[in-house]
């Protein structure tokens, strides 16, 4: 070994974490990030962030119902891609959650 020489180790995000950060897989990424940011900014006072939690919960409910519908209709993949979700929300005219 040489002194002063370090081997740079590549740090990879765990698979589960990569999936949660993938906008094609997680439709509520913005809501999730907003909740976490609120908790950080408010010293983890859950009461101050309840509106963010509610928005996230409603987002999950909405996209889970879409996913169940697509599954019943035999549509694959059950979760629409980020582009498809943008189209769905655009057709609705407003955010359903």
TrEMBL record:
Compartment(s) of residence: Mitochondrion intermembrane space
GO cellular component: mitochondrial intermembrane space
Record carries keyword Hydrolase: no
GO biological process, one term: mitochondrial respiratory chain complex assembly
UniProtKB keywords: Disulfide bond, Mitochondrion
Family membership: Belongs to the CHCHD7 family.
The protein, known as: Coiled-coil-helix-coiled-coil-helix domain-containing protein 7
């Amino acid at each position: 070994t040489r002194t002063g020489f370090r081997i740079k180790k590549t740090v990879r995000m765990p698979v589960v974490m990569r999936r949660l950060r993938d906008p094609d897989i997680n439709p509520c990424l913005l809501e999730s990030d907003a909740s976490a940011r609120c908790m950080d900014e408010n010293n983890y006072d859950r009461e101050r962030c309840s509106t963010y939690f509610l928005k996230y919960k409603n987002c999950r409910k909405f996209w889970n119902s879409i996913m169940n519908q697509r599954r019943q209709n035999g549509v694959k993949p059950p979760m629409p891609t980020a582009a498809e979700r943008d189209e769905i929300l655009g057709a609705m005219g407003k955010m359903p959650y």
